[in-house]
Write a structure and sequence with these properties.
The protein has a single domain, classed as NAD(P)-binding Rossmann-like Domain (Rossmann fold), CATH 3.40.50.720. The N and C termini lie far apart (about 45 Å). By secondary structure, the protein is of the alpha/beta class. Strand 5, helix 5 and strand 6 form a beta-alpha-beta unit. The protein has a seven-stranded parallel sheet with strand order 3-2-1-4-5-6-7, with helices on both faces. Bound molecules: NADP nicotinamide-adenine-dinucleotide phosphate. NADP nicotinamide-adenine-dinucleotide phosphate binds next to helix 1.
Length: about 260
């Protein structure tokens, strides 16, 4: 898919990855809709992106999801691509995580993107064209200890993306699931960064990941796992999860000190 003059929604544009994706799309000469909750962050981002519009919205509210949909159509008449990047993280022992955090992770990472996609998918099916891009995580395929809720949300997003892609086969609408490994952004707390350093877990630059995401969209990829050897471990975990249990056993115990 050529992205020039395409109308592209970035949900979670004010985050580090979202902003990198927006800048990369600007270089493709796309029409960009920046969505986030913070008016100031949206305005700051938009100064470098002349072909963008901004929508202040919290995806966890139905009226805001409708606003995203309606305002984009008012301005551009058609939505060609939606990239769901907004997300929340939790790094904790599962039994210590508050119910509020568990609920908010599922709401923001899974339910709200699904409900927004429902509106957009109907519109795309009517146009017989479009691309829905859901940003997951390697943790959705290799669930890590102390990231139970986060891993579960990304596994749910992965299953949902695959299911919807199969359901929409032949409609002209592509659904893709893109799973980065760790990225150097504020999404990761100091505790996570310290743990990643200790265990030599690779962290990618947001601009690199944004480039991988845009290339995957242009190529119409159904899914993409970013980073080696992580993409190999995704397959090993699917085929031989006991092997991964063993490999991570010591690390899982040591990781608790970083909480
Ligand atoms: N960083 C990593 O290591 C990593 C690795 C793999 C995958 N990912 C995925 O990449 C995505 C973005 O991560 P990031 O690193 O860019 O994180 P980030 O800098 O913390 O950005 C998170 C984004 O989500 C938005 N957001 C959160 N809740 C929202 C809500 N209710 N309504 C609207 N927007 C909301 C935030 O917007 P405002 O706060 O401005 O409202 C912000 O734009 C996430 O889906 C994450 O799971 C990240």
């Amino acid at each position: 898919m050529k992205l020039e003059h395409k109308n592209i929604l970035i949900i979670g544009a004010t985050g580090d990855l979202g902003a990198a994706v927006a800048r990369r799309l600007n270089s493709e000469n796309a029409n960009i809709v920046l969505v986030g909750r913070s008016k100031d962050k949206l305005a700051a981002l938009a100064t470098d992106l002349p072909k963008s519009i901004q929508i202040i919205a919290d995806i966890n509210h139905e009226k805001d999801r409708e606003k995203i949909f309606q305002k984009t159509l008012e301005k551009f008449n058609q939505i060609d691509v939606v990239i769901n990047i907004a997300g929340l993280m939790s790094f904790n022992e599962f039994i210590l995580e508050t119910d509020e955090i568990t609920n908010s992770l599922f709401q923001t990472n899974v339910i709200s993107p699904m409900l927004l996609n429902k509106k957009i998918a109907k519109h795309m099916i009517e146009n017989s064209s479009g691309s829905i891009v859901n940003i997951g995580s390697i943790f959705g395929s290799i669930p890590f200890a102390l990231f139970s809720s986060y891993s579960a949300t990304k596994a749910a997003l992965k299953a949902y993306s695959e299911s919807l892609r199969r359901e929409l086969e032949g409609t002209g609408v592509n659904v893709s699931y893109i799973a980065p490994r760790a990225i150097r952004t504020k999404f990761n707390s100091n505790a996570i960064n310290e743990m990643n350093n200790k265990f030599k877990i690779s962290m990618d630059d947001p601009d690199f990941v944004a480039n991988e995401i845009i290339n995957a969209i242009k190529l119409g990829k159904k899914d993409k796992y970013i980073g080696y050897p992580e993409k190999l471990f995704v397959r090993i975990n699917a085929l031989m999860p006991r092997l991964v249990d063993k490999a991570l056993k010591k690390q899982n115990q040591e990781a608790k000190q970083f909480i």
